[in-house]
Amino acid sequence: MPNNNNASVTKRNRAEACLIIRPVPPIEQPAGLIYRQPLAAQIPGTDAMDDLAPWKPDDAFNPQASVEDIYYCFRLLLGRNPSPAEWPGHSGLAGNDLHNVVRSYLDSRECAERGLLGPQKELDVQLTKAEGFSIYTSQDDLAVGKHVAAGVYEPAVAALFRSILRPGMGVIDLGANIGFFSMLAASLVGPQGFVLAVEPNLANVRMLEASRRVNGFHHVTVAACGAGTAPGLLTLNAAFSNGMTGPVGNDLADLMTAQIVPCLPVKALLPPDRAIDFIKIDVEGAEHLVLSAARDVIAKWRPTIVSEFSPGMLEGNSGVSGEQYLEFFADLGYRASVVDGRMDAPAATVAEIMAEYRRSGDDHIDILLVPATPTRSKSGWRRLLGG
User: Fold this and answer.
1) Keywords assigned by UniProt (predicted)?
2) Which element (helix H / strand E) includes 86?
3) DSSP 97
4) Is residue 200 within 8 Å of residue 261, measured between CB atoms?
């Protein structure tokens, strides 16, 4: 005589097996029929998959987006259901290329904020303490960040900033990079002052803006663009945090693959009648182009200027020789000297500066340009002019 208990167990197991392979009926959703089925029911090597799947094995793949595809873009990529207000517009994407439709959701800000596209990379930045301010740096940035973190970045130029800048002054930092000199200037001119940081490399802009915020420097304005002769576009080629801008070429293939950045003249970036006392410029040889376009600003405010001086780069990017760049300032009534760590460096002739550049054995030196006849009294000018 069979064991009734065993028989009941067998019947129960069979019933469970039937439940496992029986497809769950589709349910009605705003997007249409949406299928639900436990993964446990999808048994490889059986016919169960054919019964459970919302498609048939011999169905051809449809490269056009369906209403259901769009609904699942919301569920899977955005993590929510579409709202009644937005659904009519989104469902209207049905019939378009599936790749393009899915890409539009993948590229959305809402999807990016969910962090689905790979594991969250640990931020490779550190907050470095400097004298009077803090700045975000990256050890992977061999051009600038590594040296800033070590406390050995451009000490002679930094000393000039500390000697010249006073509370309330207006400063322009052209080629701000990750913002070391912008933050230094902001710490020296204080909330009554003004700092315009101009930088086209968006990776640097993010670092710069993060540093501005952590310091609470509300008097710093970050302009995410290149400085040039007229409003327009430039190409950017970057190595670590350093970068070089140039004109956009005419070749279509080059244009489509280039990193394009906006460009504006310095004058267009300044608040009306904002006095400018100091300019630092390091734009990889485009210094003459940028400052020629800012000639009116220089003539009006007579700022002290610290400039990188690289004759080779000037010829390549501005189309002028080192001598012509120096003569540009002489025509504006400026006296030049080499930045060598001394606060009382004597004014030098064009020939003397060119000779110092050649003696340096480096691809650039820094020069200080001071108006011979300043229109306003500024602390530090008497010493810089040798008086």
Assistant:
1) Methyltransferase, Transferase
2) none
3) B
4) yes
Contacts of 122 (CB under 8 A, 6+ apart): none
How far apart are the C-alpha atoms of 141 and 138, rounded to whole Å? 5
Q: What is the pLDDT of residues 49-59, one digit of tens each?
A: 455 566 666 77
pLDDT digits (tens, 9 = 90+) for 139-167: 889 999 999 999 999 999 999 999 999 99
381 torsion bin: left (phi>0), alpha (psi -120 to 50), beta (else): alpha
CA-to-CA separations, 128 to 138, 147, 161, in angstroms, rounded:
9, 11, 19
Give me the residue spans of the domains in the chain.
4-114, 126-384
* 126-384 maps to CATH 1.10.3720.10: no
Sign of CA dihedral 159, 162, 164, 169: positive
Which residue is it, tokens 């990379």?
A: 121
What average pLDDT does the structure give for the chain? Answer: 84
**Separation of alpha carbons 234 and 274, rounded Å:** 27
**Residues β-bridged to residue 239:** 242
Helix (H, G, I), strand (E, B) or coil at 244: strand
Token readout for 6 is 């065993």
Give residue-wise pLDDT tens across range 361-376. Answer: 999 999 999 998 755 4
Residue of 291, 27, 40, 306 lying closest to 161 (CA atoms): 306
Residue 240: partners with Cβ closer than 8 Å, 6 or more residues away: 140, 141, 142, 143, 144, 145
Cβ(178)–Cβ(208) below 8 Å: yes
- DSSP annotation of 41: G
